[in-house]
Design goal:
This protein is an alpha+beta fold. The protein has one domain. It is 34% helix and 21% strand. A two-stranded antiparallel ribbon has the order 1-2. Strands 3-4 form a two-stranded parallel sheet. It starts with a strand and ends with a helix.
């Protein structure tokens, strides 16, 4: 598994180094939709893993309100997210 090394200031005065093992499973032929800001450490780790694994990456059109339309168009086989978005998808599915 590859390691990602990131430098982060966070709330510290001095930069700290974050060294973490990437545990995103993907394989060549998979498709990933990228919608988080590329400055977001989670998205950067996901893209690094996807590219190293030969995964196709599609980018959303820039409007988060249309993200599910973009997902329907791209039909990703890999969808990584942050808890806030999973909660929104869950809430929307419960209403339907």
């Amino acid at each position: 598994m590859p390691y990602i090394i990131e430098a982060s200031r966070g709330t510290h005065e001095e930069p700290i180094v974050i060294r973490q093992k990437v545990v995103i499973a993907c394989a060549a032929g998979d498709r990933h939709i990228s919608y988080l800001p590329l400055a977001h450490i989670y998205e950067r780790n996901t893209l690094t893993t996807a590219i190293r694994g030969g995964v196709s990456v599609g980018f959303y059109r820039g409007n988060i309100l249309e993200l599910l339309d973009d997902v329907a168009e791209l039909k990703p086989t890999v969808f990584t997210s942050v808890p806030r978005l999973y909660n929104r998808i869950y809430d929307k599915a419960r209403v339907c």
